[in-house]
Amino acid sequence: MAEKPIERKLPSRQEDFAEWYNQLVLRAELADYAPVRGCMIVRPYGWTLWENIQQALDRRFKATGHVNAAFPMLIPRSFIEKESKHVAGFAPELAVVTVGGGEELEEPLVLRPTSETIIGHAYARWVQSYRDLPILINLWNNVVRWELRTKLFLRTLEFYWQEGHTAHATAQEAAEETRRMLDVYTDFAVNEAAIPVIPGRKSDSERFAGADQTFSIEAMMGDGKALQSATSHNLGQNFARAFEIRYLDRQGQLQYCWTTSWGLSTRFIGAIIMVHGDDQGLVLPPRLAPLQTVIVPIFKTEAERELTIEAAAKVRDALAAAGIRVRLDDRDGVSPGFKFNDWEMRGVPLRVEIGPRDVAARSVVLARRDRPGREGKSPASMDAIVESVSQTLATIQQSLYDRALAFRRQNTREVGSYDELKSAVETGFALAWWCGDAECEARIKEETRATTRCIPLDQPGGSGSCVVCGRPAKEQAVIARAY
Amino acid sequence: MAEKPIERKLPSRQEDFAEWYNQLVLRAELADYAPVRGCMIVRPYGWTLWENIQQALDRRFKATGHVNAAFPMLIPRSFIEKESKHVAGFAPELAVVTVGGGEELEEPLVLRPTSETIIGHAYARWVQSYRDLPILINLWNNVVRWELRTKLFLRTLEFYWQEGHTAHATAQEAAEETRRMLDVYTDFAVNEAAIPVIPGRKSDSERFAGADQTFSIEAMMGDGKALQSATSHNLGQNFARAFEIRYLDRQGQLQYCWTTSWGLSTRFIGAIIMVHGDDQGLVLPPRLAPLQTVIVPIFKTEAERELTIEAAAKVRDALAAAGIRVRLDDRDGVSPGFKFNDWEMRGVPLRVEIGPRDVAARSVVLARRDRPGREGKSPASMDAIVESVSQTLATIQQSLYDRALAFRRQNTREVGSYDELKSAVETGFALAWWCGDAECEARIKEETRATTRCIPLDQPGGSGSCVVCGRPAKEQAVIARAY
User: If you count Cβ atoms within 10 Å of the first and of the last residue's Cβ in chain B, which end, N or C, has fewer?
Assistant: First the structure.
């Protein structure tokens, strides 16, 4: 994450997608570079977006019986080593505290890269009998992974996320929980973020370190690459055995628990940017946008100024009273055109323009962010402003989803040959029969830089020939280059 | 913080206040010890209480124009050294990351003990002209201070808090902000937590490291000791000079900004416990309680069980629909008496009891947590249950405040002599004329272990003789032993 100065002009997505992304994050004031390599400052506009994501998810977690708690960030180094696959996965990425209060520590402490181990230690103390199960806890916190190549939101040393950690009496309950949370993420992505996602199972090579099964939702970005947007892990009895999480069952027998974990991070903000954004900047789905509507008064004379601002204030009050997140941009010394660009960069879904003639006609102009120019403009009556704005916001929300889905469909090819696969992953997703062999997967990765994103839950049925080796294959996989 | 096992019986507050506190925190499942010395796990019941505190404060922060953001936890060691008093105050308490991704770091990183320095670095970049001011940002996060003697919630290595950081164009605006946030904390403590507090100015020796002035709210705990419950600092131009936070004023002159910071932490949960708790356990103010009402059905036969649970479920639904945080305790295999004790330990403000005769009479019994035994019980009609419960919760909220205020008044003495001071601080607060000299303050601390908690904003006027040296004094100070 080399620190970039803000450029005068946003490059087009076509021209330089990576640089378009960096510039957009800075110019929309979502985030900024921090003085420590690879860390980020999430600025108020970006953090408010995250707060809205948090609320939309937290509501769903609570509705499915989960409660929040907080676990320490400092974990004894030895904990990470207790689950053999877990340590192999995370050891290279650890940040280590060796000094506290001026003295060398006896045992170094790591900053949590994820909390399965410290959760395992606590659950082992808390669980005695089947009556104590299930435990359904979620944490909203920050974690640290020492990444080498970083990018704002997408991969940072410290990031923000939620991590759910549950313990169950039976394998079936844990399997159900793993899938339930995948459904929660899918529902959130589709209905709040307007992002179509493919829920599926990860291949063995892409599984979480220490999981029996990992599921994810995968989304297509505006450049055709994939972004893993959330994951849900069935941890089997791996952590229960490593940390001795056991319970007495109804027959008085001591049993190991079955555990799960699942998470969604500030990475998701990167997905929102890259799925919906355009060459003018950010485009936010109304349900998550910090500001849903901005009102810009248009005037030349002082008399017009008073007239339009007075009318705009009334519109703002009506919208705010209806629970719409709205701001009146009455800044002096900047032109309406400057304000239009400013709010377009920040992705506010709907602009309300009010000029002197509009005031006279008790009318306003609505301008949709998702349809720049004349095409996205329509008049609305001031007397029915709440209804018009609410309906337009709902239309924008749906239209963003439809557009993203159409884009993904256009850029997804069901491929019958290895050559077709190689060509498909240049611009989007390949859907291919795969025999399940890790060698075939490795060859694809090496030769095309594309990876098995997931084996979609939704399969066509039947069988085919593996796109690499030609042997029989029972499942199709989504194969793509990924962030 | 020596780890204590849970005892069978809660000691009385009279007998052993410190151990009463520890046992209560564990038994009410507010928090648990973590595997790393001095760290804590905040369990779901404790974290939900913190979430309610967060919401009550966040509402007030947003109503006064503040927005939330997130700053990195990792800070270059050199940053802490830029403000000379700041480094003197925090250097002994730092936790230091020296290894990342398997390699020794070139510059060690500290885990933030507070964020003034990294905020200063960012604000210096963000502020150009007077148009960029004020900046009114708040952070909800975790910080680390390497404390030697720790106690759950009151003093832990890692704790949770909010820290506000603002930058202003003038000294007056910064002074106003500092006082405004002190008022916000006072309003929150009084009206949400039912805790009477004394807002005041800290003496020079008790000031925040790097501040020109520190204000605090001080509360009296159930053992007569003081707890600093929130602070608000006027940082003057100290951090602006250390980090070069400058702006061009309207005349085109480069000026240093004036900054403030203010915070309230999970320590406040300790205050709630120690102000309201009794020998049966926790007592929570209704406005912050995770559960405001618990319903306990009382039955012997299976027929009675069905009858009472059906009625209880209707009461629960009515209360929940009215926005009251309610739970029906329909657990099998535990007696009503066990349930009563259980919820009393957890401090649920109001219990609703429903037996078969109550069902027949379309009535329930309300039992107030703040008045144990018969005195706190009263009948209520099922048909007006929402009104009765709402009113009783409001009565409890007020009554907790009144009781805490009466207790503080009883245990506060205006002292005229040093001997009176010594006696007063044995059991509570002393209110004493003080000349302002640090030597007098130091003598009190050395000889009585009591410290100057604050110089209350509300002064009697006039003047007196310093309680230590007898010289003229213009102000009274609150002097007490403190957590």
Answer: C
Is the minimum CB–CB distance between A71 and chain B shorter than 8 Å? yes
Is any Cβ of chain B less than 8 angstroms from the Cβ of A125?
yes
* Topology annotation, domain B293-392: Rossmann fold (3.40.50)
**Which token pair is B260?**
């403030």
**B383 CA: distance to closest CA in chain A (Å):** 28
Domain A17-276 part of CATH 3.30.930.10 = yes
Residue A93 to chain B, least CA–CA distance (Å): 5
Question: Does A69 contact B43 at a Cβ distance shorter than 8 Å?
Answer: yes
Q: Which pLDDT value is given to residue A147?
A: 93
Mean pLDDT by groups of 10 residues along chain A of 483 residues: 69 96 97 96 98 98 98 95 83 94 95 96 97 97 95 97 98 98 98 98 93 97 98 97 97 97 98 98 98 97 96 98 98 93 97 97 97 94 97 98 98 97 98 97 97 97 96 97 97
The Cα-based distances of B448 to A170, B154, B416, B481 in angstroms read: 59, 22, 16, 8
Domain ranges within chain A, ordered by starting residue? 17-276, 293-395, 412-480
Residue pLDDT, tens place only, B352-389: 999 999 999 999 999 999 998 899 999 999 999 999 99
Q: For B107, name the nearest residue in chain A, comparing CA atoms only.
A: A36
Whose tokens are 């039912």? That residue is: B194
CB B72 within 8 A of CB B110: no
For B150, the token pair is: 């720790």
d(CA B104, CA B97): 9
B1 touches chain A (CB under 8 A): no
Are the C-beta atoms of residues A316 and A310 closer than 8 Å to each other? no
Q: Are B155 and B147 in contact (CB under 8 A)?
A: yes
Best of B42, B68, B73 to disrupt the A interface (most A CBs within 10 Å) is: B73
Shortest CA gap B158–chain A (Å)? 7
* A97 contacts B96? CB cut-off 8 A: yes
Residues of B in contact with A101 (CB under 8 A): 92-95, 146, 148
From the list B155, A191, B190, the residue with the least C-alpha distance to A183 is A191
Architecture of domain A293-395: 3-Layer(aba) Sandwich (3.40)
B338: amino acid identity, one letter: F
Kindly tell me if the per-residue pLDDT of B2 is higher than 80.
no
Please tell us whether the domain made up of B412-480 is placed in CATH 3.40.1800.10.
no
User: From CA B138, how far away is CA B70, in angstroms rounded?
Assistant: 8
Interface of B with A in 190-249 (CB under 8 A): none
- Rounded CA-CA distance B335/B352 in Å is 15
Q: Does B122 touch chain A (CB under 8 A)?
A: yes
List CB contacts (< 8 A) between A243 and chain B: none
